[in-house]
């Protein structure tokens, strides 16, 4: 079994509620690391322009580069298929940050430690969803067994031009992509 996220890119409006809820849940400073990030992208040229938003966190990959790059075993693949981090084992070498193509592990300067999405492990142990999924006002984020999510969302893809190749780490991320999100002529914009 592998757990992962499904994101409906067509529903995401870029409000960043998921990002703020994640920061709040994990007591991360506003200007500090973001374990869930929302990017906004434009594509095309006038008059044929488009825009899309994409929320990403740790993809809890089947072949996580961060785990392979961690010399102490602080970053590991747990029994439930999520990628977890043990703070006490971490020597803050930042190899996980360097090796992860998605930028999921982040350095928290205030705490001098690595932080990353743990798929809200404590909430899930209480039978609840990750906070990002519950906070999304557009219901664009789902979390669960990847096979079940794939069956439920048959049109989902694992790759978009804006993301690194899925062949590298085999991310447990499924996306319902808008036509704009499938274009390769995109630019990230700051809103």
UniProtKB/TrEMBL annotation:
Single GO MF descriptor: 4 iron, 4 sulfur cluster binding
Pfam families, A to Z: Fer4_11, Fer4_2
InterPro entries registered for this protein in UniProt: 4Fe4S_Fe-S-bd, 4Fe4S_Fe_S_CS, ET_IronSulfur_Cluster-Binding
Highest taxon of source: Bacteria
Keywords: 4Fe-4S, Electron transport, Iron, Iron-sulfur, Metal-binding, Repeat, Transport
PANTHER family noted in UniProt: ANAEROBIC DIMETHYL SULFOXIDE REDUCTASE CHAIN B-RELATED, PROTEIN NRFC
Protein name: 4Fe-4S ferredoxin
């Amino acid at each position: 079994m592998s757990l992962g996220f499904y994101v409906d890119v067509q529903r995401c409006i870029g409000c960043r509620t998921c990002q703020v809820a994640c920061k709040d849940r994990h007591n991360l400073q506003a200007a500090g690391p973001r374990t869930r990030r929302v990017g906004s992208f434009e594509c095309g040229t006038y008059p044929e322009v488009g825009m899309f938003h994409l929320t990403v966190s740790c993809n809890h990959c089947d072949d996580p580069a961060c785990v392979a790059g961690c010399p102490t075993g602080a970053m590991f693949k747990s029994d439930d298929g999520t990628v977890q981090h043990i703070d006490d084992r971490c020597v803050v070498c930042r190899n996980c940050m360097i090796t992860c193509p998605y930028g999921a592990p982040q350095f928290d300067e205030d705490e001098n430690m690595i932080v990353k999405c743990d798929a809200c492990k404590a909430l899930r142990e209480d039978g609840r969803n990750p906070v990002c999924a519950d906070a999304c006002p557009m219901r664009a984020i789902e979390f669960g067994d990847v096979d079940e999510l794939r069956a439920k969302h048959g049109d989902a893809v694992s790759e978009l031009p804006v993301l690194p190749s899925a062949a590298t780490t085999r991310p447990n991320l499924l996306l319902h992509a808008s036509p704009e999100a499938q274009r390769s002529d995109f630019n990230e914009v700051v809103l």
